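Cross-check.
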Amino acid sequence: MLGETIKNSLSLENIYKAQQSIKGVVQATPLVFMKNFSEYYSANIYFKREDVQVVRSYKIRGAYNKIQGLSKSELANGIVCASAGNHAQGVAFACKKLETNCTIFMPVTTPNQKIDQVRMFGGEFVTIQLYGDSFDDSQKAASEFCFENKSTYVHPFDDLDVIAGQGTVGLEILNDCDSQIDYLFMPVGGGGLASGVGSVFKVLSPTTKLIGVEPKGAPSLTISLEKGENTTLTEIEKFVDGAAVKRMGEITFEFCKNLLDATDTICEGLICSTILKVYNENALVVEPAGALSIAALEQHKEQIKGKTVVCIVSGGNNDITRMEEMKERALLYQGLKHYFIIKFPQRAGALKEFVVDVLGPNDDIAYFEYTKKNNRDKGPAVIGIELDSKDDFEPLVERMKQKGFLGEYLNENPELFQFLI
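Predicted model, tokenized:
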């Protein structure tokens, strides 16, 4: 029943109308041919660059389309949303442009950089309320505030006007690409982008294979499809904050279930490796959710050979303070960084022996923590080692065993490993 209602309530005409509504405010972002990725994957790879959007993400499209369509009385009562990221910035920008007040609820744990961005885009028209430790806490507070003040809640994804706004990304892609698109990779969190863009492609480019891409630590759509109903995840990995939701929308689940040809989950380590690759090779700054579609190329490299492929780079709001963590995750994923508990004999020269006889010529100690213990034959040290090649790992472990240094390998011990990463 819900599926039929949705089917009849969002048409291509709605998305064309949204395109006119946001014109002059929202930027038509470029579709860029990526030479290095195309050569590497033997395909024609294009990036849809929503990372250069007005608020550095596509979220402004849906937010502005929704808010500009409200009545004068609705605008007078104010706008409310809950978000710790891109949606908050889109709503703040839209409200300032339309000169209407908004109250944005964000978790207390939100980084100051994101709070400052929302305040900058909203100016005098935005009030920020920090509440709770999670998005769910903030969303509950925002709903209560809406009820008490008769304000309008602008949902980040589960709203047809928001979905129509996001669908304009699809119209631009098809307008700018001269050849038939064989594969379209797009990130899925709440599902608004995939719902809108998928609606466009199913009508105007029905032969394009639509692939929804989720972080491995928050596969709400994948699990929901397996169970046959929209499902709330009990726990999620929040690293890919722009696409990490415990439950996608009721409306968007119906859209994604019927529109997408396949879904894929991407390891957070591969996402980090991708972020570093596009930065080092193309000077692009993309956020974790923005890298999802690009990372998916690696898992589909055989299918896409000789094909024309578009990846939607959904955003570029990457917090620079997270880069060390991203580098760490990337090295771990690539098998180039390993942590051990090493048992050092408590005698002079033990460390020198380890460096000379155990480490390979290209191995590098990146982490070392040791405290000498009195009245013990051996003292444990936690050591992180970076390798030049993942093939160097097994020989390194074998030399540790032969020399009696190996205590425990920590990469495969999540209980201990969490204190390091």
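The chain has a mean pLDDT of 92. The CA atoms of residues 360 and 395 lie 9 Å apart. Passed to J.P. for a second look.
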